[in-house]
Specification:
There is one protein chain. The chain has 5 domains: 113 residues, Beta-Lactamase (2-Layer Sandwich); 149 residues, 2-Layer Sandwich (Beta-Lactamase); 62 residues, OB fold (Dihydrolipoamide Acetyltransferase, E2P) (Beta Barrel); 57 residues; 82 residues, Efflux pump adaptor protein, beta barrel domain (Elongation Factor Tu (Ef-tu), domain 3), CATH 2.40.30.170. With 574 residues, it is α+β, with helices and mostly antiparallel strands. It starts with a strand and ends with a helix. It is built from 11 helices and 24 strands. Helix 9 runs antiparallel to helix 10.
């Protein structure tokens, strides 16, 4: 419309209140780019048209021109700037050109409005179509709804959908036709056209339009020829990860497909494809679903994705396999303590008071050594009393013997025997006030050194003595570990006080009675040391490990947790 245009360019505004590099120029090559950009920047800054007369450009600035820049405003917002270089003109001609540019801006606004309206209409149709498809119960009903909607919206004579079953495609639905014979020539040609598009993974339009990718369209030509040279368009129908079929649209020859229609059809196909695939997947049998899940799991496990995780998992599986094959010695571990094989209790023989305490717990004693004594003053007085009574009766007995009074002699003899017995009893009680060590050993418990003069009762335990060279080891075995533990099993013992020394032991007896203590149940197991040691003392504690035989390393490290889980599952009733 305007003669004398030397060059023109279109610019977009930037956030920095400048303009971008020209997004469109005419002609593509020429001088004066900087002049156009300058004028566009000024028009953007002033948000008004700019006219610059008598501008020079070209080699040595020998050429003259005039610059006109005009902002393009849509919905009261500046969206672009157009700038042109024209040959010198009068002021009236400059204003006329400026007015033409402003009218061009109005045309752009109208074009955008039409495009927006068309997009809204397309979006509304897509939403309606998707709602109708998702509301169907089966893939066949969804396919029928799809082809009917497309045929009505795009004014097609026929729209068809085919689904891939293996390599071939089988026609699933024809618009506005409830049933059809799959053996007819028309159906076979439609399926051939679908396979032609899917095999090439292209949208095929016949007759071809400008800008269409080169493709083999022989099947499409045959289909169009059968319908008197109709226009045919086939779009591959893609699911979530693969092509599941195709959509074929047919129009009269006088209504060929254009680029916008094809683009909209492609977007709709991309939209409905996953939905139709989902309908198909829901209709599969349980066997097919299970096989698909197993194949997907195998693919994810063997595929290239998540390589680090798979390497870690593979390493873990190999390690578990090796651990299940390699055997090791399973040793049952438990708390152990040292006890004397015999423990002699020294108890109070009678009621009395502590007079003397020679030793206390931890002291070594020899056989017969005095350990403690009780106050014997009352017993001494009692012995003197009975001795006096014995002397008195003895004198009477001598007098009766001199008089030969036989009856009196018999009575006195009985009284003498009774008094003699009382004297012997008192003497025995006096001996028992002295507590002596029954054998060489160590005092395990008892300390009367702080209780001199304190009263004691008959049977009260005062001391416990254990031998020095005869010990036994008592193990406190948890109830989940006692299975399989029997006499004759060997093991090792380490005492907390002697961590550098290992003692060998043999199981003697498993006491078949559980003991409750310290919030747990355990069994008492008695063991004997192979070689007694003078370093050991009753009461020492440590850790014992009993050899239970050969088991796999995996079992050794996991059996405790597995047994607890089994017990928990059984208790939960599963």
């Amino acid at each position: 419309m305007v003669t004398g245009i030397i060059r023109g360019a279109l610019y977009l505004p930037t956030d920095a209140r400048g303009v971008t590099t020209a997004i469109a120029t005419w002609p593509e090559e020429g001088d004066g780019e900087y002049l156009l950009r300058d004028a566009a920047t000024q028009a953007l800054a002033e948000k008004s048209s700019v006219v610059r007369p008598k501008q020079h450009y070209g080699p040595d600035n020998q050429r003259a021109c005039e610059l006109i820049a005009c902002p393009l405003i849509v919905d009261r917002q500046l969206v672009a700037v157009v700038a042109v270089m024209i040959s010198p003109r009068s002021e009236a001609q400059q204003h006329a050109i400026l007015q033409l540019l402003q009218w061009g801006g109005l045309w752009v606004e109208t074009l955008l409005q039409h495009q927006t309206k068309a997009q809204h209409q397309s979006g509304a149709f897509a939403l309606t179509a998707m709602t109708a498809i998702l509301g169907q119960a089966s893939s066949h009903a969804a396919a029928m709804e799809t082809v009917n909607q497309l045929a009505d919206y795009f004014r097609c004579e026929r729209v068809s959908i085919g689904f891939r079953q293996g390599l071939p495609i089988h026609l699933q639905a024809l618009s506005h036709i409830a049933r059809f014979d799959p053996r007819t020539q028309l159906v076979r040609r439609i399926e051939a056209a679908m396979e032609e598009a899917v095999d090439q993974n292209l949208t095929i339009i016949f007759p071809a339009i400008s800008g269409q990718d080169s493709a083999v369209a022989r099947a499409h030509a045959e289909l169009a020829g059968q319908q008197q040279d109709a226009a045919v368009c086939t779009i591959p129908l893609r699911g979530r990860s693969k092509t599941i079929g195709a959509i074929t649209l047919e129009r009269p020859a006088n209504q060929p497909f254009d680029k916008l229609t094809v683009a909209f059809c492609q977007s709709l196909a991309n939209l409905v494809g996953p939905s139709l695939e989902l309908k198909q997947r829901e209709e599969r049998s349980l066997w097919a679903k299970g096989f698909e899940a197993a194949r997907g799991l195998a693919g994810s496990a063997l595929g290239p994705a998540n390589l680090k995780l798979k390497m870690v998992t593979l390493t873990a599986l190999v390690s578990l396999g090796l651990l299940s094959l390699i055997d090791g010695t399973y040793e049952m571990t438990s708390v152990a303590r040292i006890e004397g094989s015999v423990r002699q209790v020294l108890a109070a023989p009678q009621n009395g008071y502590v007079q003397q305490a020679e030793v206390r717990a931890g002291d070594f004693v020899n056989e017969g050594q005095l350990i403690a004594s009780l106050d014997d003053r009352d017993l001494q007085l009692e012995r003197q009393k009975w001795q006096s009574e014995h002397d008195k009766i003895q004198a009477e007995y001598q007098e009766a013997l001199a008089k030969r009074e036989r009856v009196q002699l018999s009575l006195l003899r009985a009284q003498l025997d009774q008094v003699s017995a009382e004297i012997k009893l008192t003497q025995e009680r006096l001996k028992r006030t002295q507590l002596h060590a029954p054998f060489d050993g160590v005092v395990v418990s008892g300390d009367l050194s702080q209780s001199l003069g304190a009263p004691v009762e008959t049977g009260q335990v005062l001391y416990e003595v254990a031998p020095l060279n005869s010990y036994r080891v008592v193990l406190e075995v948890d109830e989940q570990d006692v299975a399989g533990l029997e006499s004759g099993k060997t093991g090792r013992l380490i005492i907390s006080a002697l961590p550098e020394t290992t003692f060998n032991l043999v199981i003697d007896k498993v006491v078949p009675v559980a003991v409750s203590g310290d919030a747990r149940n355990y069994f008492r197991v008695e063991a004997a040391l192979d070689e007694p040691s003078p370093l050991l003392r009753p009461g020492m504690r440590g850790v014992a490990k009993i050899d239970m035989g050969q088991r796999s390393l995996l079992w050794i490290w996991t059996h405790s947790v597995v047994d607890r889980i089994r017990l928990w599952i059984w208790a939960a009733g599963w």
